[in-house]
Design brief:
- Keywords: WD repeat.
- The protein is mostly beta strands.
- The protein has one domain: Thrombin, subunit H (Beta Barrel).
- The strands form two sheets. It has a four-stranded antiparallel beta sheet, with no helix packed on it. The protein has a four-stranded antiparallel beta sheet with strand order 5-6-7-8, with no helix packed on it.
- A hairpin with a 5-residue loop joins β3 and β4.
- The radius of gyration is 13 Å and the shape is globular.
């Protein structure tokens, strides 16, 4: 089922298929296939609304910023969690400008 109206989304190509990444107020990041519209994976871990998403240049990692004041990073090949970046004093709204610096340090 498609996410609720309060959501943020991003599209990228992995292998030969485009995927839509969607974060919402249900604390989940959902990965949808553009090939057939199916739900590919659900990424969990946030405890509040997801406000922003970013994928690294190699399309191997996804980061989600949240109102829980954390950024969570997952591997797109395995959907396994890679890192939790904590210590922000406010909810995180702008993940994309940091994506290249933050994600390259997690390789």
């Amino acid at each position: 089922m498609w996410h609720a109206p309060m959501s943020t989304s991003l599209v990228t190509k992995i292998t030969q298929v485009f995927f839509l990444f969607q974060g919402s107020d249900d604390c989940l990041v959902k990965i949808w296939s553009s090939f057939d519209g199916s739900l590919h994976s659900t990424l969990r871990g946030h405890s509040a609304e997801i406000t922003d998403l970013a994928v690294n240049n190699e399309n191997t990692l996804i980061a989600a910023g949240s109102c829980d004041k954390t950024i969570r990073v997952w591997c797109l090949r395995t959907c396994a969690p890679v890192a939790v970046l904590q210590g922000h004093s406010q909810e995180f709204r702008l993940c994309a400008p940091l994506s290249v610096q933050v994600m390259s340090s997690l390789r």
